[in-house]
Amino acid sequence: MPTIAIAGTFDTKGAEFFYVKELLESLGLKTFTIHTGAYEPTFQPDVSNDEVAKAAGTDIQTVANSDRAYATEMLCKGMKKLVPELFKQGKFDGIISFGGSGGTSLVTPAMQALPIGVPKVMVSTVASGNTAPYVGTSDIVMIPSIVDVSGLNSLSVKIFSNAAFAIAGMVKFENKKVLEKKPLVAATMFGVTTPCVTAARKYLEDRGYEVLVFHATGTGGKTMEALVDAGFIEGVLDLTTTEWVDELVGGVLNAGPHRLEAASKHRIPQVVSVGAIDMCNFGPYDTVPKQFANRNLYKHNPMVTLMRTSVEENEIIGKKLVEKLQLAKEKTALYLPLKGVSAIDVEGQPFYGPEEDKKLFDVLRNGVNRDIVEVVEMDCDINDVKFAEAAAQKLIDLMNQK
């Protein structure tokens, strides 16, 4: 019988959690309760708050006598260590929690530490805002609580019930179909590099590889790096490195300072290109920073405005890519599409910029270590099928060499 872990502050929100516990058990599921509050719970949990505190190297008395910031930090630390251990011991099959900003920050780091695929549901007052700090690169399902998690009422009961039914379905109706095991390849894609990556994916799949495509919107790049770090990936087709533009120029879709590191760190074969480095991403047109008002701006859709990168910015971006490629210890290939790095960086399109691209290419040509990085220049744009298939075949060659 599947077991669902229920984690939360049973001291301040005991009635709400006990309601969900009884509901899940009425569905024929077992429950496993973990108390994350600082004080005495309203019902007996399977894992006490003292056990959580001890996992963080302290005790619950010290936590209870401290300020809120310290208490939250210690209990969060304990949960992050304890929850994955309990999962490995087979104590539960999925996990659910509820909370405001504090309760959410207490439990979601522990959820993030669980393997991808383990059902994780968080009902939260902050679920409709920026959820990146809570979800990270995991597969947590966040459900807006609508009202604060404070008492049982006609609305909160409906939300809690829906969340309980959702995780019950996740654990009870597990997909038993097993796909054929194939070597896993990670690829990065943006809307303006979709034809390239689609063609490359088909080429690889036709030759027996499974391709995971990541949308290079910040979270996508971070997630890919995390999966490479975790050992899931056997080859990386990093054709769309646009997230570095946002990191260095100030856009909204950056992937942080460690993008383009994991494959080199773990000696994973990789083929890298410069997809969508012609653009920096902002939100709606009126959100573009004032200092960029006179730049070449393009409304991609009502919610996304693109800005063409300049010669100076491409020099900076090129140097950063060189820095990251210098981390490689195994053969790596860098593919340069000389006639355009995106669908709108070709002749006749709004971001066509031969001078800007030339600066980028020159910095890369002259900067990388040719003993490790093979530079392949092709006289076509990035979305040409020839480019896509050549890059895919090169990755196959590198993986076969390894």
UniProtKB/TrEMBL annotation:
A UniProt-annotated Pfam family: UPF0261
Domain UPF0261 span(s) in chain numbering: 2-175, 182-399
InterPro entries, per database record: Tobamovirus_resist_UPF0261, UPF0261, UPF0261_C, UPF0261_N
Superkingdom to which the source organism belongs: Bacteria
NCBIfam families for this protein: PRK02399.1-2
Protein name stated in the entry: Tm-1-like ATP-binding domain-containing protein
Organism of origin: Paenibacillus puldeungensis
